[in-house]
Amino acid sequence: MKAKLKGANGFVRFLLNHGEKVGIAAILAVAGMLIWSSLGRPVVDDAKQPPALTAEANAAKTKVENMSWETFAPQDRTDFTEFRSRSGDGVTAPVKPEQYPIIEHINPLVIPPVKLREDPVLVAVEDLEVRPGAGLWMSSNPEAIRENMRAAAVKAAEERAKAAEEAERMAEEGGEGGRGPGPGRGMGPGMRGGFGEGARGGMGMGEMGGMKTKDGVLVIPPMGGAPMQGFEEIVETSWVTVLAKVPIKQQFQMYEDALATARGFNPAADEPQYIGYVIERAEVTDEGTGKFALLKKVMPKVILDRMATWPIQTPDLVNPKYIHPLLTFPLPPMVMREWGEEVTHSDLPLPKPEDLMGVNPLEADPNAKPPATEEDADDFASAAKRPENAGMMGGYGRGGEGMGMGRPGEMRMGAPGGYGGYGGRGGEGMGMGRSMGMGMGRGGEGRGMGMGPGMGGGGMAATELPPYVWDRATKTLLFRFFDDTVEPGRRYRYRVQLVVKDVNVDQPAKYLDPKVSTRQAKEKIRYRMTDWSEPSPVAVVPRPGLTFVAQTKDLTGPEPEARLIIKSVDSNNAAEIAMDSWYVRGSVLNFVQKAKIIWSTLYKIDPEEPQDSPQFNFLTGLTLVDLDGGEQLVSKNRNLTAPARALVMDSSGRLMMQNELAQGKTIREYDFIMKQDAEAERRAREMGTEQRGPGGPGGRGGGRGGGRGGF
Question: Domain spans of the chain?
Fold first, then answer.
């Protein structure tokens, strides 16, 4: 039905009446155009179908595979003979680089640009290591040490006179052999005697000489460790040595990068100056690592006060180029034992003797000034006020000529007494310089152990550590600290933070970068601190006793056994003690019994009426868990056996493997002493004499040990 709109125009009426028809017609027209356009598209002929293309590809592949030089047309070939050089051809000479030098800036700067002073980047210590240990340390009152040194100086003069008289008397007698002045008589040719009072004419053990208690325990002078004089206090100590590397070369480079082109640059003063360090410790339990807490703030005064309590200043074993007077804590005087590889970082090995030839300690500064006396609430403030390159007094002055007592009974004049704090250089043994620089050497080696709390030139106690001067080549220094407040059986971790004097603290404000000025106004201190180091590995503190596996037997039987040598220390007698026995699996290696060998200079035996040996505590805290080795390796050689091994567990539950080969030196020393004693007893029985002590093998020592006498 058509709409009737009389008021609308004609176009509107047309759309209303015929709009549907128009839309349908338009759609049909578009559809027709699409159909028409599709009819005109090209189609793929048969030559481009897949079978035809595959055939052409195979033909091309066959042609390439069959291609040869002869198949090319002549115009496509390249004849190399046309490019050969002929006589008369010009050849270009090669370019010489030196004829074309690098052109510098056309207008170079006369001086580098000057900038404001910045704070150098501070580098923390690296690669912390820990070395637990236990043994005997010695200490004393500083006043007692000074009094003893004065008495030692007088005694040395008397001994020197007696030595001269003895030399004249022996020259008149015309030889060293003969009969001794005591009631006994030497049993051998004129050989030097053993240590100690010796056996009166008895058979001896040569330079291993000593005596025996009534119940047959050997008492032998120690072969190593700091010498004792009788007034010291001997303390049984457990400790952890904290070691690290100080990247000194990198730190100097950081200072140069920050200050070399800055205002007020002074090469002598604008370099890192360490004034102390902070060390923290955390205990490790089954629950993990605890919270780190302050253990010690170390400054020069702390080290000097500690050294003042040491009767002997032990010479360091580390190469001097790695030692920093403040960061490398001095070696405490250890009795009975020598320090070894445990006092240095694994990346800074101990030097060989030939490496130290020509190396001298620092000379004393005659213009040294005492440190500032004013106190400050801040521990490091006074150290930061120390004058630049302050020298040292007393303890590092050079001693005079020394008197040596190296071999038993011999007095020798030594070289000049060396440098006080590092130990005087004696003759072949104990050397005492004219300026109170005493030294105790290692036999003929002559390396001294300075005696007293820095008693150098003038006899005054040291008030300053020596300054450190970098050699511009050493990359790392040794950081070392001894923590002697630990408890055996516990586990610890450590971390270290170095303290450096603020190089910008006394500079004019106009020279400083705004960041530096802001920091100084906020902190109001004269030093800066590095970041904390990474925590150290876990240190397990051992008991004072040590075990050494020597043999095994009956490994195939129901109760296999291991022979263990157990060594410990005894502070009451200032002695190192040892015994050996056979143990089965599950044995707890803690005992209270008599030793078989006692190394000591203070434990005395009456040669006329020897006393019984006391009971000693052998406390290792170890349990023998398992063992193997010791089986015969070759059927034709009964003595060729596999090395013995033992698995032990300490009080913290840590398992450790002990190997006979790794502990061979201690085992051989113990067995050698016991065999020598057995041999001396056998000879005494054969000769029908009584062995009252393993003295020297004869010579002039009838009443004073063998040979030429002993200490």
Answer: 177-226+544-687
